[in-house]
Design a protein that fits this description.
With 136 residues, the protein is mainly α. The protein has 6 helices and no strands.
Length: 136
């Protein structure tokens, strides 16, 4: 994050664990970071029109996921990170979670790896007809 959430680094372990997930993910810096992380994931699937998702809608998709994961992230942060790097650890975990789960949240079981784009259907039909006409 360009604008680090260094206030997290100043908290004791007990204070960190007592935080509400909303206290962390709804700051202005956090919102910007989460939107950038989400857009980066969705941009990979721009043919599906997902990169045009409004900011509020994108945050609506990721907030429940991040809130559910936050207690585990904070616990891991205490065990695996030093206090001066807590913000980087926490937001790194949030970015990884968005990277791995956002498409599943938005697309459900129709992940982009099995989606078929309309342009590709047209190309496939044209090739198939050409192949079929040449055989017969």
């Amino acid at each position: 994050m360009d604008d680090r959430e260094v206030w997290l680094n100043k908290l004791s372990n007990d204070e960190l664990l007592a935080l509400s997930p909303w206290d962390i993910i709804t700051t202005e810096n956090a919102k910007r970071f989460l939107l950038i992380a989400g857009r980066s994931v969705l941009r990979k699937h721009s043919k599906l029109g997902l990169s045009a998702m409004p900011d509020d809608e994108l945050l609506h998709e990721v907030y429940p996921l991040l809130c559910d994961a936050m207690p585990g992230i904070l616990q891991s942060c205490i065990q695996k990170s030093t206090p001066d790097k807590r913000d980087r650890f926490i937001f790194g975990c949030l970015a990884k979670l968005i990277n791995f789960r956002l498409c599943e949240l938005v697309l459900g079981s129709n992940t982009p790896t099995v989606a078929v784009y309309l342009e590709e259907i047209g190309i496939g039909k044209a090739r198939w007809r050409d192949d079929d006409d040449s055989d017969g």
